[in-house]
Each structure stands twice: as C-alpha cells, then as structure tokens.
Amino acid sequence: xxxxxxxxxxxxxxxxxxxxxNAASDLAYGAIVNIKDGSGRVRGGQVISVTDQNAVIQVxxxxxGLDLATASVSLVEDVARLGVSKEMIGRxxxxxxxxxxxxxxVVAEKRLSINGQAMNPAARAKPEEFIQTGISTIDVxxxxxxxxxxPIFSGSGLxxxxxxxxxxxQAKVPGHEGDFAVVFAAMGLTQRExxxxxxxxxxxxxxxRSVLFLNKADDPAVERLLTPRMALTTAEYLAFEHxxxxxxxxxxxxxxxxxxxxxxxxxxxxxxxRGFPGYMYTDLASLYERAGVVDGxxxxxxxxxxxxxxxxxxxxxxPDLTGYITEGQIVVDRTLNSKGVFPPINPLPSLSRLQGNxxxxxxxxxDHKNISDQLFAAYANGLDLRKLVAIxxxxxxxxxxKLYLRFADDFEQYFIGQGGQDRSIEDSLTxxxxxxxxxxxxxxxxxxxxxxxxxxxxxxxxxxxxxxSMG
Length: 471
What we know:
The protein contains 13 helices and 21 strands. The protein is an alpha/beta fold. It has 3 domains: 7-77, Thrombin, subunit H (Beta Barrel), CATH 2.40.10; 81-356, 3-Layer(aba) Sandwich (Rossmann fold); 367-469, Bovine Mitochondrial F1-ATPase, ATP Synthase Beta Chain, Chain D, domain3 (Orthogonal Bundle).
C-alpha cells in the first residue's frame, strides 16, 4: 500500500529534540516521518504524541538549523519498522539499524514493527532449560534459564563491559550450539567502548553468531530509545521465525533511562522519582517482557540487561523498577573488583528466581542445587568471620572458624576469580567441590551423604588455580 505524501507545514515550535506541529491530528502515534528544512536537508523523526491541537515529533538528529517558517513534515511509515533477515547474523549496525560495518544494506525478508507483538500469556511456556555462560558464579549460584530475564547490576567504573563481552563470547545452550545466537545492543557508548566491543567480538570470533547494535554517546538521545527495540525485534524474528535460541544483552540501561528522562523534560512532563518520568516502569516492562519461550515454537528469547547503578545505590529507581519486573539480579561488587577478582560477581546479593526450574538431575547435575546452597552458606559465614577478625583478631577463632576464613579467600580467588576462562558446568562444580573439600565433612550440612561420598576430596587441577585477571 502506497502512503500519500501529505505535508504538514504548520510547525509551532521546537524544544530540544522535539518538534510541535499544529493541525496534524491524523498522524498516528509511533509513525515515522521526514522533516525537511528550507535548504532541502531531510531529518528523520517519530511521532510520540498526538492530540486534537498538535502532534509531537522526536527528531532523530539535531534540531539546530530548523526554521519554523520553512520546515515541513511528511509521513514515511505508519509505525517504526526494521527490515530483518537471517543474514543480519555477523553484522554490525548503529542504533537505528543502519549498517556500520562497511557492508551493504541487509536485504529484508520482512519489515517488522519495532514495538513487537504482544506475547499471549497463555502461550508462554515455563522456562526450564539451563544456559551455560561459562562463568562459575552465574552458572552455579545464579543460573540463567532459557527464556528468563536476568539483569546485571553494576556500578560506574566496574568491568561490566568486559563481563558482557565474556558472556556474549561463551554463552551456549548445551546441545543446541548450532542454533544459538547473541543479539548485543549497547547504548550511549564512548568511542573507546565502541572500539572495545568491535575488536572483542571480531578477535574472539563471537561476531560470527552475533548481531550488534551500537549507539554512541554523541548520537541523539532519541536514538537510544529505539536501539533496544531494534535489537529485540531482531531477536524475536530469529527466535520465532528461524528457531534460534537468542540471548539478548542490553547495556547500559542507565543510559537508556537517562535519555527517557531527557525526552520527558523536553516534553515538559511532570517528573517522578529523581526526575525520571512516571511511566518509566511501563516503558522498561515493554522491553523486559519481550523475553520468553512460546509453546509450539522451537526458539526462545533470553535477556541479560546490564545497568550501572548511580552511586552504587540499589534503591535507585532504575535498578529498583528493573528488580520488580525481572526474575532476579546478578550484582557486580566493587570490593571484589578492588581486590583484582574478575569477574567481580558477589553471589550473596545475587539471585535467580528461575534457577530451580533449570538445574538438577537430567539438566545439569544432581548435586547442583545443594552445592549452590552450601557455597552460599559457607561464604556468608566466612565474610561474617572477617568482620569479627577485624575487631578481635584471629586468635579468638576456633580451628573451624579459621577454615571458613580460608574458604572465603579460596572461594574468591579460584571460584569467583576465574579470569577469562570458559568453564563448563562440570568444571565449575569440580572447582566448587575442590574448595569445599577443605572444610570438614561435618560442616557440609546442605549436601547429601551420597554426594559427599562421590565428590568429597575432589582435587582442583592446576588450570583452575590460574588467572584472577581478565585473561
């Protein structure tokens, strides 16, 4: 169907990245338009509000140089769409889905709305298949399940970019390696970060099974709002049309929410908590709820959103609302990072609410859940004793207490601090048993006697005593 090129010339005023057009009530919310100025330059934009009086348009580029008297608006498409194809795998795009790898435009098999299709709750299948990230702390303690949304809470200056690249490089669904893909969307990147991700994906070969959307910090804020939707539309297409198990990594959601706040300010909206718009919960939910497994469809969409908590404040609106919508969190710890431990993931405040669905006999290993609980309890005890030692000194401790202190050190050095190693779940459980075997059997109260008989006394191979660095 050909859309009539009707023009709207009554541009009332411009506020930041927003254009207010009178007598344009027949434009539809979400429509894509072109804005032409007096010199003939054309900018893209999207309708974000329509009333009887005017339409509000987000301009995808800067509004500098736009003259109210000569600017005109014309409709391009009734809703924002992305041309998708299986050939997008192995390609790099900007935040609006345009190629930035020097290769030609993708020949689209379909053009899909970037807002996605609502997933019928009755058609959702229960997520219960383990995804192996190759990172011990995640795989054993906060397991990622296919179809889950499991965010990573980080902080400014912490190595969440390196962690994201490692997950993208190593993640797999055991037994489905051939139909596993990664869609990686980064928002508000510096040029250094763009270079890091580009080189990392190419150097490790991860690009061969990945689709990258890279939005830079100097790109318009409006583009940041579209980037995750471009990525999720690609993921849904690969998953539900081609049967891929797709892992979507979104970083950094804080930059996305800051762009949401900036646009809200330009629209003169009444701010909510800390200046963020009151609809931020709904907006984030529209992204996160696009993860899932659908009955009768072979593919799936799993999400790992990454956000940096301002001032390391987990009660900040962005992590707070994210925690309500998603199924747990993985917490990157500043104290562990200062010790040189990588990846510095603290298992104590971390949680995967769907872990029990995808681990255990026939899925990972029969002792997996018990080992996870035992490691959690022993590490928590070791950290409590560290605080006690800071006050009383080590002389006041019993021999068993000293073993727990040493356990905490070994746990951080060898289990958490695996560096750049890619560990299978078997490897991770071997390391766990090797560390737990330094505690007396009587202390392993969360592990069955059969498991103790089978695995207690496991020796860690020298390869597990390697790097704590990023490798």
